[in-house]
UniProtKB/TrEMBL annotation, chain A:
GO CC entries: succinate-CoA ligase complex
Keyword Membrane: no
Enzyme Commission number(s) of this protein: 6.2.1.5
Transmembrane segments: none
InterPro entries per UniProt: ATP-grasp, ATP-grasp_succ-CoA_synth-type, ATP_grasp_subdomain_1, Succ-CoA_synthase_bsu_CS, SUCC_ACL_C, Succ_CoA_ligase-like_bsu, Succinyl-CoA_synth-like
Keyword terms of this UniProt record: ATP-binding, Ligase, Magnesium, Metal-binding, Nucleotide-binding
Entry GO MF terms: ATP binding; metal ion binding; succinate-CoA ligase (ADP-forming) activity
Protein name: Succinyl-CoA synthetase (ADP-forming) beta subunit
GO biological process terms, semicolon-separated: succinyl-CoA metabolic process; tricarboxylic acid cycle
The ATP-grasp domain, residue ranges: 9-214
TrEMBL record, chain B:
UniProt cross-references to SUPFAM superfamilies, sorted A to Z: NAD(P)-binding Rossmann-fold domains (SSF51735), Succinyl-CoA synthetase domains (SSF52210)
Domain CoA-binding: from-to ranges: 3-104
Name listed for the protein in its UniProt record: Succinate--CoA ligase [ADP-forming] subunit alpha
GO BP: any one term: tricarboxylic acid cycle
Keywords linked to the UniProt accession: Ligase, Nucleotide-binding, Tricarboxylic acid cycle
MF annotations from Gene Ontology: acetate-CoA ligase (ADP-forming) activity; nucleotide binding; succinate-CoA ligase (ADP-forming) activity; succinate-CoA ligase (GDP-forming) activity
Gene Ontology cellular component annotations, sorted alphabetically: succinate-CoA ligase complex (ADP-forming)
HAMAP family: Succ_CoA_alpha
InterPro entries: Cit_synth/succinyl-CoA_lig_AS, Citrt_syn/SCS-alpha_CS, CoA-bd, CoA_lig_alpha, NAD(P)-bd_dom_sf, SUCC_ACL_C, Succinyl-CoA_synth-like
Gene: sucD
Residues binding substrate, per UniProt: 163
Keyword Ligase: yes
Amino acid sequence: MKLLEYEAKRVFAEYGIPVPKGVVIRAPEEVAAHLPDLGGGVVLKAQVDVGGRGKAGGVLMADRATAAETARELFSREIKGVPVGEILAEERLAIEHEYYVSIAVDRSSRQPVVLFADAGGVEIEKMAQEDESAVRRVVVSPLLRDIPPFLMRELLGGAPKELAPVINCLYHVFQGKDAMLAEINPLVTTPRGVYAADAKLIVDDNALARQGIAVNRDLSEREREAEKHGFSYVELDGSIGVIGNGAGLTMSTLDLIEFYNGRAANFLDVGGGADQERVMHAVRLVASMPGVNVIVVNLLGGITRCDEVAKGIIAAGVTPTVIVRMAGTNEEEGRRLLAGCGYRMLESMDAAVKAAMEVSL
Amino acid sequence: MIYGDKNLGVIVQNITGRQGTFHTELMNAYAREVGGRGVVAGVAPGKAGREVHGVPVYNTVKEALAEHDATASVVFVPAGAAGDAVMEAAHAGIELAVVITEHIPVHDAMSAIAYAKLHDCTVIGPNCPGLLSPGECKLGIMPAHLARRGNVGVVSRSGTLTYEVFDELTRAGIGQSTIVGIGGDPVIGQTFVDVLARFDEDPHTKAVIVIGEVGGNLEEEGVRSTDLPVVTYIAGVSAPPEKRMGHAGAIIEGGEGDARSKVRRLRALEIPVASRPSEIPGLIREVL
């Protein structure tokens, strides 16, 4: 889950990374009360979870006289379609130089990778594409508590040594907060020292519970229901409901619907080892979406047992036609149960998808 | 047979759990069918002295290995403790740990895999269905009755999609040498490159199927690394950007990992890419 900038900065500060003085405001009037603390210049930053926020008009500069008016202006905007409900008002730093640093999970080496660039505040992907040498990278063994000095020297090159402790603190954030990504862009030098002018922190969804972070997103009623049961659920705009087990197979089923020029209404992955009750909730959930007139269940039992799935489908008892393709663990029993209740079963996913297309038309 | 054969002795960690118990029975049924050794011991802290389908249970991996000759472990330990379980296995001398558990925090996976490497322990997974060499051994949860012995290797990031593919192959009369599910998480012990290196040295494998999905660029790294004929399939071409389609691996990251561009890049390397699973048998016949 991606934290908002002010949430990330709060975490960074806890780990000893200097951040600009700032407050979160939820109405334009609130800015006045905090002006004395923030100094002469103020930066107003919309707290919305979108990429390229600055370019989209989500960051505005102001001085004491214009702060309230500028805040009002920002609250009235939508940044890439997202309304602005919170603004981070920060002191304006006297920036000498901007750098880029980020720490992410590197799939290839299976280790944390630290990226550093002598130019910050820009799009790192673009910079790396234009000049590969502009971004330096080192991988750090996850068994180490700190970035060792020799790697830090390699990373920094000619950049000031005073950045090193801040980058090491960022590494502690990365490890301590189960981050998928911890980024400071720009990391700035000022006459008063080094600051994280921006902050980005994405926490591993599988570690939210132990980090004590509650997921707080805008969800539809069906999405909330899916989350309650731990289903991966995505809504699309067609008429064929899709239930599968495993992300790959479920996605592949969607791809096949598209291949045959059909349109899926939604996507639900029941996950591994789903029992009767989970399957029942899954079928009811997918069926409850308006416009769904047929549901394809594509199920390959490994850890999941086909007989449990069959019982769940039968227990759901929904109106849209349910077309089932199942194979694998306990498949004979599963098929026997479904056949006994008159369900339509097909041998292959191609055949199941084609049959669903006919019903949906 | 790239990770083991009939003679492989296996332990199961968290053998007393629901899945551990159920799949120990299935793994041993398969071992009996093919004349292999199968699961020789189980581990469940605090439950030493019990038996699960005739398999003795020990408190620790070390205690199990003191009594039984095993070099592989299948891990069914719940997510929060699974990283620790892998390290315990590696520390005790296990050479191959197959981690079925899903939802392991990625930092735990990174540490456990790095620690296992220090102890020369190979990790497959996490969040994977395990491996199956038809006629030889099964470690994990794959529905073995859908597979058949042959000379096509299968390596995949997606569990159930793997079953789909070897089911298609078997029905088309094409057998498999070894099937490896490497898992869909961002950090996995064995990547396509690692598994394909083993297939390259395996006299039983004549061609390989690489099954990938949205996210990362490990499929490309893999197919570039092997000398064997390869056929690929990439799931998720219809996945809308920015949506999380299932597990962590299946999310599009900044354009790099989206399935359509992945398919394009593979085709640019003159690798056959199936547009649906049912096309795979035909394509593999062409390269065999």
